[in-house]
TrEMBL record:
<feature type="transmembrane region" description="Helical">
    <location>
        <begin position="44"/>
        <end position="69"/>
    </location>
</feature>
<protein>
    <submittedName>
        <fullName>Uncharacterized protein</fullName>
    </submittedName>
</protein>
<keyword id="KW-0472">Membrane</keyword>
<keyword id="KW-0812">Transmembrane</keyword>
<keyword id="KW-1133">Transmembrane helix</keyword>
């Protein structure tokens, strides 16, 4: 049974039947207001548990929605590499520099795990002309290296292994392109020595 004690005279008033916020006078003249009913301990516990359980579920649902939206924005896998490059207006030279470094890193990681340098390419067999993307064909050596420049590429890639002047193995990683389609190739290369040290990128005929 709910009750309210007058702060002036200490008289007790039963609140049964009175609405929340209802004003009424005490016999001493003090105006009293019916307070909101208090939650029982059980209801408080239930409310806290609902918040603790419901909040993580709400966050997870929001994350799933964001993930779904981002997946919808990804182009189809069949030509995603070409679409990304086109959308970002990536220069052929920038693409070559990034990928030739990645290729030499992959060669070094393979050697660290298997003890040998692996020859690969040239792939595609012909250098793409005019900066146009062509399918990147299946190549077992590149797959072993874990080098995947995309389903469509604008450059030819190769890993060549030879001996340096003192007889140690040396790797040269190549990316070749023909931006203007005149048959003269731009060549980007990085040399990897037996100690795992890489040279700066060497560029020949970048404007071709």
């Amino acid at each position: 049974m709910r009750s309210l004690i007058c702060p002036r005279c200490g008289a007790t008033h039963e609140l049964t039947g009175r609405k929340r916020g209802e004003r009424f006078p005490c016999s001493c003249g003090q105006e009293l207001v019916t307070p909101a009913p208090r939650l029982s301990t059980g209801k408080v516990v239930a409310l806290v548990l609902a918040v603790l359980v419901g909040l993580p579920l709400l966050v997870m649902a929001g994350g799933a929605l964001v993930f779904w939206w981002r997946v919808r924005q990804v182009p189809p896998a069949s030509d995603s590499a070409f679409r990304v490059d086109a959308a970002q207006n990536v220069a052929l030279g920038d693409e070559a520099r990034v990928n030739v470094i990645a290729l030499c890193d992959a060669v070094q990681m393979y050697r660290a795990e298997n003890g040998v340098f692996l020859v690969a390419g040239p792939t595609p067999r012909e250098v793409p002309r005019g900066g146009q993307a062509v399918p990147f064909p299946h190549d077992e050596a590149f797959e072993k290296l874990g080098f995947a420049p995309g389903t469509a590429v604008r450059l030819q890639y190769q890993v060549e292994v030879r001996e340096d002047p003192v007889g140690e193995p040396e790797v040269i990683c190549y990316a070749r392109g023909d931006r203007d389609g005149d048959g003269q190739n731009s060549v980007y290369s990085v040399t990897l020595d037996a100690n795992g040290m890489t040279s700066p990128i060497q560029v020949e005929r970048e404007d071709e």
